[in-house]
């Protein structure tokens, strides 16, 4: 049995939220012991409070006999602030309890479900997870990686694709595309499964750091930066 703390603050835009869960892995089964989720950008940024709540509910808080043995976090793609907050919180908890820290993407967590749907559909070229980015842009993740796409520059790929994600309906797709806009965010169990797969070496290594696909929106002041104080 493995005790896993799962954190996800990746969702952006109207879908922004923070999620924390305590999950137990027993063999191939994953069960949620405690979970909380709160909508809004502020919830994602304050994910440390959500983590403290679920750890207390599960009896895994600091000083308790049982502690997380693995800490998993969704590293993106998604909200800059949500990713920074959740990855920093995950790193802090992992360091505090001496547990390994593992990062996964949203697509990696949803991949088993999406691949099963592709197989079920038949004659499908693959899956595509489309999620919200900044205005006029989306993140597109496939089994080969992730990219940020401007809606105005989007060129639909050839073939027949299964398209999921909270922004799936914003991208024009060729006739025959299978739209699954109901599949948007991985569950705590799905994230924990991907975390364990990476920890076991089934998934290729990835640093548990924010996956920044787009450059930051912040710009230097027109007059330049102020001189350093003397």
TrEMBL record:
One Pfam short name: TsaD
GO BP, sorted A to Z: tRNA threonylcarbamoyladenosine modification
Gcp-like domain mapped to chain residues: 39-139
Protein name, per record: Peptidase M22
InterPro entries membership: ATPase_NBD, Gcp-like_dom, T6A_TsaB
Organism: Acetobacter indonesiensis
SUPFAM superfamilies tied to this protein: Actin-like ATPase domain (SSF53067)
């Amino acid at each position: 049995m493995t005790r896993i703390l799962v954190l996800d603050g990746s969702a952006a835009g109207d879908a922004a939220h923070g999620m924390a869960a305590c999950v137990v892995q027993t063999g191939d089964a994953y069960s949620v012991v405690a979970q909380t989720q709160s909508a809004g950008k502020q919830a994602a940024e304050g994910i440390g409070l959500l983590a403290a709540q679920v750890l207390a509910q599960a009896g895994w808080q600091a000083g308790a006999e049982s502690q997380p043995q693995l800490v998993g976090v969704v590293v993106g793609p998604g909200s800059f602030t949500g990713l920074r907050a959740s990855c920093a919180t995950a790193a802090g908890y992992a360091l505090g309890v001496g547990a390994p820290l593992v990062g996964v993407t949203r697509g990696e967590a949803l991949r088993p479900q999406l691949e099963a749907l592709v197989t079920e559909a038949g004659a499908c070229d693959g899956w595509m997870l489309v999620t919200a980015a900044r205005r006029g842009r989306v993140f597109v993740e496939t089994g080969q990686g992730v990219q940020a796409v401007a809606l105005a520059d989007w060129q639909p790929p050839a073939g027949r694709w299964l398209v999921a994600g909270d922004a799936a309906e914003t991208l024009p797709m060729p006739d025959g595309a299978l739209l699954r806009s109901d599949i948007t965010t991985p569950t705590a169990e799905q994230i924990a499964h991907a975390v364990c797969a990476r920890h076991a070496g089934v998934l290729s290594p990835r640093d548990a750091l924010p996956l920044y696909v787009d450059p930051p929106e912040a710009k230097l002041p027109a007059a330049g930066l102020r001189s350093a104080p003397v």
